[in-house]
Amino acid sequence: STTCCDKYKTGVIDGPACNSLCVTETLYFGKCLSTKPNNQMYLGIWDNLPGVVKCQMEQALHLDFGTELEPRKEIVLFDKPTRGTTVQKFKEMVYSLFKAKLGDQGNLSELVNLILTVADGDKDGQVSLGEAKSAWALLQLNEFLLMVILQDKEHTPKLMGFCGDLYVMESVEYTSLYGISLPWVIELFIPSGFRRSMDQLFTPSWPRKAKIAIGLLEFVEDVFHGPYGNFLMCDTSAKNLGYNDKYDLKMVDMRKIVPETNLKELIKDRHCESDLDCVYGTDCRTSCDQSTMKCTSEVIQPNLAKACQLLKDYLLRGAPSEIREELEKQLYSCIALKVTANQMEMEHSLILNNLKTLLWKKISYTNDS
Question: Which residues are listed as membrane-spanning (predicted)?
Fold first, then answer.
């Protein structure tokens, strides 16, 4: 945050969180939620409101594929847009960035206007150069872009403010699907098998788990062929999901949710020896074409299949006996979904709706939900 404050005090960047961070010091950093110095995430308090503060969210030096979807230098330098750039010119820059990341979606200019509203941190109806520099740096980050695109959706945390490449989002009471979080020093020494059985012990009651699961299925719907194209979830793991005290699912970390267009550009023609070389994040896989030794651009598993994989043990453990068999059957047919299947989109929405209906029907009779 010192870099941000130096840049703020010299007038390079600006944003709604800058004054609290650098002058009045009413943005406090609490417990650290990340174990990596290159993507710091803290529970924080901003003007008495709890939030999650994220800063320095660049990738580690080990880069997937040798190139990353999020270039760090754009952020550190805060060199764009340059002095003298008109608002119109800035809009064109943002438009071209979106076109490259999201492909040629029909309504990109609406999204550009939305970004300008977000960038105008002090709500004076004008975007200053400092605000534009902060916004440009943040737009390089997938998570920020997704938060703006999905800002009216229930499962995306609200953006509270930003300063340079630091941003504050609404706080989520429980920052993992499972009910116990340990200091990372202890985490290092716990065997993963033992950790998994511990996790299973500390989970909410089944109706509450079902409500959280419905939230994840709804989020999958939100990012599947939405108004600005399709987004791929490339790290579908319990640590990236949280929920609030009403058991509504909230995404805690969306850095590895990427626009499909962007990923296809990045992965196609990548040199490969086997399918193992064609992975982005932890689980966006394509196949290696052995005749050309290049990765193909079609990701094999849809988001829904990966979400069901994640939810399988979570939902089956403690599931009411009268729906257990049906639930298991539906989860397995969901996990088997492949992007290449002929009627994928129809099958996708059918499986998704069946699962949601089964869970809702079961929990609408209980007080827990």
Answer: none
